[in-house]
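Q: Sugar (Pentulose or hexulose) kinase, please. Structure only.
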Amino acid sequence: MESDKAKIIQKIKDGKMILGIELGSTRIKAVLTDDKHVPVASGSYEWENHYENNIWTYHMEDVWTGIQKSYQKLAGQIGEEYNVPLLQLGAIGFSAMMHGYLVFDREGNQLVPFRTWRNTITDKAAQELTGSFRFNIPQRWSISHLYQAILNKEEHIRKIYFLTTLSGYVHWRLTGKKVLGIGDASGIFPVDSCSCGYSENMLQQFDGLIADKNIPWKLKDILPEVLRAGDFAGTLTEEGARLLDVMGQLMPGVPLCPPEGDAGTGMAATNSMAVRTGNVSAGTSVFAMIVLERELSQVYPEIDMVMTPSGRPVAMVHCNNCTSDLDAWIGLFMELTSVLGNEVNKSIIYDRLYGKALEGDADCGGLLAYNYYSGEQITHMEEGRPLFMRTPYSRFTLANFMRVQLYSAIATLKLGMDILFEKEHVCLEKLMGHGGFFKTKSAGQKLMANAINVPVAVMENAGEGGAWGIALLAAYMKNKEQGETLEGYLGKKVFAGKAGSVIKPDSIEVQGFESFIKRYTKGLTIERAAVASIK
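A: Structure for Sugar (Pentulose or hexulose) kinase:
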């Protein structure tokens, strides 16, 4: 063991460690890996979005507080465990929530508060762009936010010099480079799978749509440059080093990989880059990424067309809501244990209640729940109202209550996935699961497999998530051999011999979920009535 520790110390001194940082919806996490892609230290920071002036947003000062504190905890862990300072790094990668709207003027000043993926305020823009492009443009995409702001005649539009995502913003501040990984870029504006750049035809169409608005820029001029996995994306500047490491120890000059969205890092962290495979990331939001064998036959407003970090076409089913309402109920149960004078650790409550859900009836005993904290495009909800319902004849038990909360968290995903299965006949051999929904051993995995009716695999590193995924992308950029693909690098050097635990669907449980989803679909009228009636 001592020799292993000595080896790690030497690698730290030699600057061979790789740093990955991801800004998720509820947590910013930093992971440091060695040259074998094994995490050796981590740090995190809890944060939340704010609903201000009818906008879901994060404050930029919280971005840097979270990054700095996460890095400080990681560096402190290295100091305590290995008694060496973290002075040099082999490579760095940044990832964050995709989509949204961050715009800056020529001097780098932020023009409006960050409008996140969670907002459903761009319906008119999304519909018009989808119609013009004949390509699905979801409400949360950056171009929808930009066009909606133009339609709204917002004052800041003429001042825009740069538009980017959260990962692109952080990367820009640390390197001075206005670039973006192709996966994240494909959530700003449609990307051409042949050129691996923004669609030239659609760029021209957009400029034509706004030609009479007297706007002093062309769209292409304000967008970040598109890069693919493995591309060099700049180095950490002196200013960037001080911004990342407030202790002033980290040296500048570290190479960075292209900044990516959480969808792309999820694919990297689960090795789901090949056709007929996919991954599902389930946390505050839930989305599935399915690598396609062929283009879809038509445009579906419920399905996004995006890219893997290496540039392969992907069908993305994205739902704004997943575990937020579930987490709120867990919080209520924690409060109950406190009132009873028997405070229980949060992780224990999660494990016990998730496990209890497996004891429930296959159809949740007739219970019904909606987890909509915000609007949901797939079910055409402009706003959300979390709801729980039952009839006098429902079997109201703790097991059924927990099962319906977990099924509610993934019900909208199921509706989107059915489009791919039933209308496009997409074949899927298995889904790789990661995110908080899968942390409790087997519970979330079993329920997801029954809901989607596809085997679901979870690896031991499922909890590391996107921070580890972006560290892998940084390692690939740093260490790839001539002509080595990302898929080959991950398959041979990271995941060789690591299949993870696989759970197959249970036919009876699948039938139970089908009964639940029929009830769920019929009950959407209740959710719509709640949105209309309760303000």
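A: Brief note, in case it's useful. The chain is about 40% helix and 15% strand.
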